[in-house]
Amino acid sequence: MIYLLRNKGRRRIKTPAIATLIFLFIIIAVSALAPSFFPRIISSGTIPLWKGGGCLENGVGNFFGFFQTKSSLLKKNDELKQVLVSKQVELLKLEVLKKENNDLRLLLGGRTETNTEMAEVLSKPPRSLYDTIIIEGGEDKGRIAGARVFFKDSALIGEIENVYGKSSSVKLFSSPENTIDGFIGRTAVTITLSGEGGGNLSARLPKGVDIRKNDVIVAPGYGDFIIAKVGSTESSVTDSFQTVRLKSPIGFSGLRFVFVEKP
Q: What is the arithmetic mean of pLDDT over 80-102?
């Protein structure tokens, strides 16, 4: 019994060795009969791996190339946006210059007085107080207090009150407690206007004086220059006078240039 078990164990040990010998014999025999058989198998097995490696390399390259292209496109897009914004700013500047040029043409084209010079308005209501404006040019341009200030060739709006080094303050006729004489353009009746601020003026006239809404008040000694326009009249049964409410002929908030009387 013990002898049989030992024989079975020896057979199990010898079987792998015999199989290995048979496998080596087959390889030697095939190599002898067909020397190129195994090299072909090896080379045919490695070619797909090389091809696969090339495809992988190309895929990785395309993957990173996509992001590089996208990044460059985004950068180019930002550059184009900056150029667009710059061009828009330039167009706005051109529009501003065009408007200023048109304003100057209107101002210069409408002037008939030669004894005046144009001045830029530096400050105006409501930024300046008490119905005053600040204009460029003072002692450096020979400005003097009392010089009349005009708007185009149509309105007389005030006079220089103070002269500084390079600027002057102009007191508008609508300034509170300011008075100026004029006459009604339609009837030539004399009238004294009092400033009330905010571009408003008033006057007191006998009830019998013919004055109507939209009548203009003209400055004496200055041709047809308007100093105010009638807005309304007020009166009562017990009062022998009528109150006239007037308005400056121009809006000072949009005033950019004026003409100053030369010494």
A: 63
